[in-house]
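Run 16S rRNA G966 N2-methylase RsmD through structure prediction, thanks.
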Amino acid sequence: MELLKPEVQAFIKENENEDISTLVLKGSPFPEISIQLIAQQISARKKAKTKLKTWYKTDQILYPKLLNLEQTSSEKTAAYKSELVSGKTLIDLTGGFGIDSFYFSKKVEHVIHCELNTELSELAKHNFHKLSATKNCTFYAGNGIEYLQKTDTDFDWIYIDPSRRSSVKGKVFRLEDCEPDLLKNLPLLLKKAKQILVKTSPLLDLSLGIQQLNVVKEIHLVAVKNEVKEILWILDENISTEEIKLKTINLDGKNTADFEGIFQEEKKLAIEYCNPLTYLFEPNSAIMKSGLFNSISEKLEVFKLAKNSHLYTSEEKIKFPGRSFKILETVDFNKKNIKSLQLSKANITTRNFPLSVEKIRKKFGIKDGGNTYLFFTTLANDKKVLLVCEKI
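Sure, done. The structure for 16S rRNA G966 N2-methylase RsmD is below.
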C-alpha cells in the first residue's frame, strides 16, 4: 500500500502539527496518493495522540475516517472493559477499528473481530499485525449477527456496541433504534453465549434499559475526566436479577474513583438531610448518571442537603468520589447578601436552583475563574442559599 511507504509515513509524522487546510492547498508531494488521503491520516493520527496512545506510538498504523475514529472506544475505556471479561472465547460483533477487541485479546484466549465495513475490518487486521496482536485474533469482514447465526461455536462472552447512527433518524440512543437491533437479536445472543457485554450511549435511561434487556446482572457507568463516556451492561439469564449492581468509575489519570450500589436498594434507603456543615461534596458525573444518591449518603456517612440538590455535607473530611470543598460561608440568597461579598471572579455551580449559572453571572457581575467556588442551591427546608467554598 502506497501509504505505508517510508517517505509517506515520514511526511505524515513531519506534518502532524500543520494546518490541514493549508496543507491540502499545497497538494500532494506524492503523485500516486491524493493529499486528501494524506490529510485524513494526519488528522486521525493527531486525534489518536491522546485517545489511542499505543496506536500513535506504533509505526505504520493506518487510520480510518475521523467519524469512525470518534465512534471508537478510547484506550482507557477499552482497558476497563477488558477487566470485565475472561475465559476461552469472545466474539466482538461490532468490532470497528478494533480497540476493544485488542484489549479483550489480552484477557481471553481467542477473540473474533466482526466488522461489516470491509475497509475498517482490513485496517483493524493490519494494525493488529503491527501491534503484534494477531496470534489469538480472527477477523471476519461481514455481519456479526449473521456470523453468529451460522457458527456452531458457543462463546464465553459476546460483546456488542450497536451503532448509534441511523440512516433514517440520524444520531440515536434508544436500543430499538440502534444497529444491529439488540432487543430483536437478544434471544440469539443469549443462546450463543454464557454472558453478554453491551455498550450503550450515556443518554440511555437505566430503568428503561433494565426493563427492556430483562436479564441485567451489572451496569457499569464509565466516565473519563468526569464525562460519562459509556454505559456497560452485563447480561446473564442464569443469575437472579433481583439485585442489579451499579458500579460507577471515573478514570482520571492516577486519581481513579469508583463507587457502587444496588439498583433495587436505592429507593428503599431512608436518609437524613442536614444544613451545610464544614465540608461540601459534589458527586462525579458517573454517580450523577447512576442515581445512587441515597447510597452515597448511607455508605459514606455524609448528609444530603436536600432531596433534589445532590450535594452532601459532613463535619469530617473524607475521600469522596467527586469534588470536595471546605465551606467558608453560608449565605441566604438575596441581592444584598450577594453584593456584600464583593466577588468579581468565582467558579459557579448551581444545584436545584431556579437561576442558571449564566443568569447569576450577569445579575451579579461575577466573571469565571479564581480560587473561590460558589454553590447556589436549595436546602431541605426550601431555603435558597449560596455556599462560598474553597477546593480541597
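The longest helix spans residues 35-51.
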